[in-house]
Amino acid sequence: MLIFRKPPQNIERPQMPADVVIVGGGPSGLACALRLAQLIDQHNAAHPDSLLSKENIYVLEKAREIGQHCLSGAILDPRSMRELLPEFEKEAPLDAPVGKEAVYFLTRKSKFKLPLTPPPLRDHGNHVISLNRFVKWLGSKVEETGVTIFTGFAGDELLLDDNHVIGVRTDDKGIDKQNQPKSNFESGYDLHSKIVILAEGSRGSLAKQLITKFNLAQNVNPQTYSQGIKELWEVPSGRIAPGEVIYTMGWPLTSNEYGGAWIYGGKNNTVSLGFVTALEYADPRLDPQHVLQEFKRHPFVAKMLAGGKMVRYGAKSLPNGGWWSLPPLAGDGWLLIGDSAGFLNSARLKGIHLAIKSGMLAAETAFAALQKDEFSASTLSQFQRSVESSWIKDELWKVRNFHQGFEHGFWRGLFHAGLQQFTNGRGLRNRYSSAPGYKRMQPLVGLPPNGGDEAHLLGPAKGDGQLTFDKLTDLYHSGTKHEEDQPAHLIIHDTNICEQRCIQEFGSPCRNFCPANVYEMLDDPAAPHGKRISLNPSNCVHCKACDIHDPYQIITWVPPEGGGGPNYEGM
Amino acid sequence: MKILVCMKQVPQKDAPLKLNAGGTWIREDVSYEVNEPDAYALEEALRQKEKNGGEVIVITAGPGRAQQVLREALAKGADRAIHLEDDAFVGFDALNMARALAAVIKAEPFDLIFTGLQSDDYGYAQTGVILAELLGIPHATIVMQIESSGDGIRVKRELEAGYFQFVEMPLPAVLTIQSGINKLRYATLLGIKQAKNKPLRKITLAELQSAVPAGAAGNLQKIERLYVPQKTKNTEFIQGTPAEAARTIVEKLRNEVRVI
Q1: How much of chain A, in percent, has pLDDT values that exceed 70?
Q2: For position B7, what pLDDT does the model report?
Q3: How would residue A38 be classed by pLDDT, with cut points 50, 70 and 90?
Q4: Which band of pLDDT confidence, cut at 50, 70 and 90, is reported for residue A286?
Q5: Residue A205 DSSP SS3
Q6: Nearest CB to B184 within list A148, A184, A312
Q7: B chain contacts of residue A68, beta-carbon cutoff 8 Å
Q8: Helices (DSSP H) in chain B: which residue ranges?
Q9: Which of A188, A186, A192 has the alpha carbon at shortest distance from A159?
Q10: Across the interface, which of B12, B185, B190 has its CB nearest the CB of A184?
C-alpha cells in the first residue's frame, strides 16, 4: 500500500513575518538575494535617515547545504556575473577558461568534425565550472551580506489570500511513513512575506502550483523539457585539456530524437560529460540514462575515458521552450525567475547566466516595491518590463523558435535552425508552436517490438562496470540520501491507471525515464496485469522527469522532508 | 547545570570517499556532517538543560568549515560555541585533541562534559576518556541514560550482549554518549535565525601553544596507509548432477573449509 505525503491539517503552525522570501538557493535565487542586499546597502549608505532592513529577507533551500542540488555541465557565460560582482573572476571557483572547442556529428562508429563551430556553441570567453562549487561560493557571498539562507527547508505550499500570494509554508519535518507525526515532529512555518520569489529551478513545485492556480500558461507555448544525465570522471592525464569543450550531435540518438552530448575538461584531470535527451521521444521504452551509456561506448568517447574512473552521477530536467514558453513573470505578491520561469537558451545549452540576470532584475523590482511599500501586480510587473528591455530578451528572441524547429526530427530541425540564423530567429514564421513532450509518446502497440532504430536505447542499461553502468551503480554516485521513515513524496494521483492502463498501453515508462530507479513494477498476482506499482522515494534525485513526462500526467513531485536529496559535490 | 558538548565534523558517511595523494587520509573536497554520536550528545545536553536548567556550550576543533557544526548546534538550542580553528586539527590523534580541549576546559569549568562515543572517521573512542584523565575527573563510556541522583548523577552504560551497567557518579564528569539515546530534534527557522546572534568564540592553535606545542607532530598514533577494502570473496559454481554436486560440496567442506 503506497502512502503519499499529505500535510497534516488543522495544526497550529508557527508564523514568521518576512519582507522577501526567495524559494530556492541556486544561481537565480542567490543572485537575486545578493543584488537585493547590494541595493539595500547602497540605499542605506545614501539615506542614513530612512534605513531599509535586510533582517527579513530569506532564502529557502531544500538541500542540506547550499549547492548540493545544483547540477549542470557547466559552462558559465560571465556576462551577468560581471554585472553582479565585477571582480568575481578573481575569487570565484572557476575550473578553466574555455580553450579548444569542437562540435562533432557522430555515427555509430565514426565522427565528423564540423568545419566551423556553429555560433551558438562558440564558448570563447566563458568558463568551465562546477556549478556546485560555484553556487556554494555564491551562497557564502550572500551570507556575508547578512541575508539568512535556511538550508534544509523546502517551500511546501503557497499561502494565498484571495488571488494574492502572501507567503510560503515550509515543509513539515518528522512525519513517518504512515503520514503520522513522530515524537520529534516539527511543523512547517508559515512565512508571511510581502514578496515571494520562486527560484526553484526546472519544474519548480511551487511554480507549478502557481502556474496551475492562475492558469499562467494559457497564452504561451507549453513548456518543453530535456533530461540531462551527467557523469563526472577522473581520467589519466593528457586526455583532455582543462577548458576543452566538445559537443556532439547524432549517435546514439537517431534523427527522430532531439538531444546531444557535452564533454568539458575540468581541472585535475576531471571530465564532465553528459547527454541531454529531449523528453519528447516517441518510444516509451527509451531510457535517457541508457542513452548516456551508449554514448560512452562510441570509440571516440571510450578512448577518452579508458583507464579512468566515474566519480559522480546526476540527473536533472531543463526547460527548453525558450521565449515563447515564458509564463507571465510577476503578479500580486510574486515573481518567477531562473529555470522556474524557463530562462534557458537551448541553442547554446546555457541558462546559468540568464538565471542570474533574471534574479538580479527581480531584485531591482523587489527593491523598488519595498521602497514604495506596495506589492501588487501593478508594481511587481515592472520585472516583466525589465526583462523585455534587457539583454535576456535580445538573447532569447534570436533563438525563440530554435527548439520548436526540431519538432519533426533532426534534419528538418537543422534546416529551420539554419534559416533562423539569417532571419534573426524568425525562420518561417514569427512564433513556432510547441506541444508538451509527453503527448508525443506513442503506445507500444504501434511500435516495433524489437525497438527498430532505437533498439540500442531501450530499457535498462546493463553496464560493464568500467565504462558503462547500470542505473543503480550510477545512482550510488549521486550521493542521494533521504530520511527513510517518511511518506512517498512522488504523489501518484491514481495508481489504478498505472496498473490497469499504463502497463498495457505504454509499458510503465516511469521505470525508464526516471534516472534513479524510484519506480518499480512488482509481481503481484492480485494486480489486474500481474504487477503493481512500487516506489523507492529515497532514491529520488529531484530531477522532476516523472512530474513532467508521465503520459497520463498523474504524478506530482512534492518536496520530501528538507535536507534530503542528491549530493552533487564537485558536480 | 553547565554542560559542554564536544562535537566533530566528519566526512559524510554514505558519500563516496576519495583518498588523498599519499593515501593517508580523505581528500578535503568531500561533504561533511556532524559526527553522529555527537548529535545525540548535543540532544541529550539540551534535554538535560530543559529538565534541570543551566547552559549548553558546544566546542569543536577543525578548519573553518567545521563552524557549520557549531551553527547547527546553536540553531537547535545551544547557548554559545567555541571553535578551535585550524586546519591542523584534522590530523590530531586522540591524545593531542584531548590536550587541546583540556586546555580550554581548565580555564572554564563545567559540570558535565559530553562527547560522542566515537568519531565516524577515525573511530578511536579515546578522546573523551583521555580528556577525563587529563582533567582528573571521572568518566563513563557508552552512556544510554542520565539521571540526577543526589549531588551527582546515575548513568546507564551499554555493555555487550544486551547487558547494561548502572553507575553512580559525582560531578563534574565526562560522559561519552551512545547513538540512539534519544530522538534528535530538527532545527527550526526561528532557531536558525536566533543562532546568528549567539556568541561564537574562536581560539587559534597558537593560543593553545603550551598544551599542544608540536601540533600534529606530537601525535602518538599515525596512519600509515588508508585504502578501500579490497574484494577477496570468490564465488565458485559447482557443476554436475545434484548427486555429484553434493559429493563435491561434502568433499570441499571436509578438506578445504574443514568444518565437517
Answers
A1: 100
A2: 98
A3: very high
A4: very high
A5: helix
A6: A184
A7: 31
A8: 36-52, 67-76, 94-107, 127-135, 189-195, 242-255
A9: A192
A10: B185
Distance from CA of B73 to the nearest CA of A (A): 14
Q: Where are the alpha helices (DSSP H) in A400-476?
A: 410-422, 471-476
CA distance B33 to chain A (A): 10
Best CA proximity match to A410, nearest among A265, A532, A248: A248
Classified as helix, coil or strand, A444 is helix
A72 close contact with B: CB closer than 8 A? no
- CB-CB: which of B15, B29, B68 is closest to A479? B15
CA distance B111 to chain A (A): 27
| Whether A170 and B193 lie within 8 Å, measured CB to CB | no
B12: nearest CA partner in chain A: A479
Q: A261-278: string of b/e by CB count within 10 Å (b at 16+)?
A: bbbbbbeebbbbbbbbbb
Q: What is the residue-averaged pLDDT of chain A?
A: 95
Tens of each residue's pLDDT in chain B, 260 residues = 999 999 999 998 876 677 888 888 888 778 899 999 999 999 999 999 999 999 999 999 999 999 999 999 999 999 999 999 999 999 999 999 999 999 999 999 899 999 999 999 999 999 999 999 999 999 999 999 999 999 999 999 999 888 999 999 999 999 999 999 999 999 999 999 999 999 999 999 999 999 999 988 999 998 899 888 887 778 888 889 999 999 999 998 998 888 88
Interface of A with B in 459-478 (CB under 8 A): 476-477
C-alpha cell at A529: 496485469
Cell of A78: 560571465
Fold of the A15-73+136-222+323-397 domain: FAD/NAD(P)-binding domain (3.50.50)
- Residue A128: is it exposed, middle or buried by C-beta count within 10 angstroms (0-12/13-18/19+)? buried
Interatomic CA distance for residues A264 and A246, integer angstroms: 6
Label residue A368 exposed, middle or buried (CB < 10 Å: 0-12, 13-18, 19+).
middle
The pLDDT of A8-18, averaged and rounded, is 92
Q: What's the pLDDT score for residue B22?
A: 85
Which residues, 6 or more positions from A373, have their beta carbon under 8 angstroms from its beta carbon?
none
Biggest distance spanned by C-alpha atoms of chain A:
75
Asked if pLDDT for residue A389 goes beyond 80, the answer is yes
First-residue to last-residue Cα distance in chain B: 61
Q: What is the DSSP letter of B160?
A: S
Asked whether this complex has an ipTM greater than 0.90, the answer is: no
Please indicate whether, in this complex, the C-beta atoms of B189 and A14 are within 8 angstroms of each other: yes
How confident is the model at residue A289, as a pLDDT?
Answer: 98
Least CA distance to B196: which residue of chain A?
A: A148
Q: Return all residues near A349 (Cβ < 8 A) that are at least 6 apart.
A: A73, A121, A247, A260, A262, A276
Name every chain B residue with its beta carbon within 8 A of the beta carbon of A560.
Answer: none
A568 residue type, one letter: Y
User: What grid cell was written down for B12?
Assistant: 559524510
In chain A, where are the structural domains located? 15-73+136-222+323-397, 403-437
What's the fold here for domain B2-218? Rossmann fold (3.40.50)
| Residues 6 or more apart whose Cβ sits within 8 Å of residue A444 | A284, A285, A504, A505, A506, A507
For residue B192, list chain A residues with Cβ-Cβ distance below 8 A: 148, 150
- Cβ separation A68–B31 shorter than 8 A: yes
Mapped onto helix, strand or coil, the DSSP state of residue A14 is coil
